[in-house]
Design brief:
five-stranded mixed beta sheet
């Protein structure tokens, strides 16, 4: 082989060597779906806003959110990935999110440290988990979504639920009387608020006791009326029986 021939073959050989080296370096003992390449592919396919402990408070401030907590190698997470991406695309269109106050997000609970930290903050126990609601005050108002996981289900739920609600962080969403009540609570100190909670809880206990007593009285009255009905029906049956017996006796006497 001449030097020129070798030089001509060198670039293709270098490419082959580079490909082999990439495969060797990429190899892991992880099963399919859990290897770094597969995980990066799943993460890269997410079209919702990627949230971490570093950007959560900034990106969700003042927003109504619908957030998916997931793992790249979770089978149930993969099943709903397409529907979630479709929902994210829908709300990224200005016509569907005119005030830009709705955020569709995703949080990878396996991404260390920022993703794991955020999942720990919200005490996520199973995947996928979906939270929704007003993201003010770091997400203390968020609730868990327990509905079906198709795009249609997500969209219908979001359109009905992701609307401003009256709370201490969204006073503009309160009706006039609600706002007055909310502002009165905001003006209270911790001890006053604690006393107010006890007062309301006691009112609940008293209300339950009142209706339990009323139910008992109604039950007693029902039992009395039921006994009266039973007695009346019994007397009617006795009268009918006697009349039939008299008829039968008269028919026999006439024959």
């Amino acid at each position: 082989m001449t030097c020129n021939t070798f030089l001509n073959l060198f670039p293709p050989l270098l490419l082959i060597f580079a490909a082999i080296l990439h495969d060797v370096l990429s190899f892991t003992n992880e099963p399919p779906g859990r290897d770094p390449i597969s995980i990066d592919k799943v993460r890269g396919a997410e079209r919702a806003v990627s949230l971490t402990s570093d950007n959560f408070d900034e990106l969700t401030k003042g927003k109504l959110v619908f957030i998916k907590f997931y793992s790249p190698h979770c089978p149930h997470c993969k099943e709903m990935a397409s529907a979630w991406n479709e929902l994210a695309d829908y709300y990224q269109q200005s016509d569907n999110n005119k005030n830009e106050d709705i955020l569709i997000g995703s949080i990878d609970c396996t991404k260390s440290p920022s993703g794991k930290a955020l999942c720990g903050r919200f005490k996520i126990m199973g995947l996928p988990t979906i939270l929704y609601g007003d993201a003010n005050f770091g997400g203390v108002y968020l609730e868990e979504y327990r509905g079906d996981k198709s795009f249609t289900d997500f969209k219908q739920f979001a359109s009905q639920t992701l609307v401003p609600k009256c709370n201490p962080g969204s006073l503009d969403a309160c009706a006039a009387d609600e706002r007055v009540e909310m502002e009165s609570y905001i003006a209270m100190g911790y001890h006053e608020l604690d006393a107010k909670i006890k007062q309301v809880k006691q009112r609940e206990i008293d209300t339950k006791a009142f209706y339990a007593d009323q139910f008992g009285k109604l039950q007693d009255r029902y039992n009395e009326q039921l006994a009266e009905k039973t007695s009346y029906v019994s007397r009617v049956n006795d009268d009918v029986r006697m009349i039939k017996e008299v008829i039968a006796l008269k028919v026999k006497a006439d024959t």
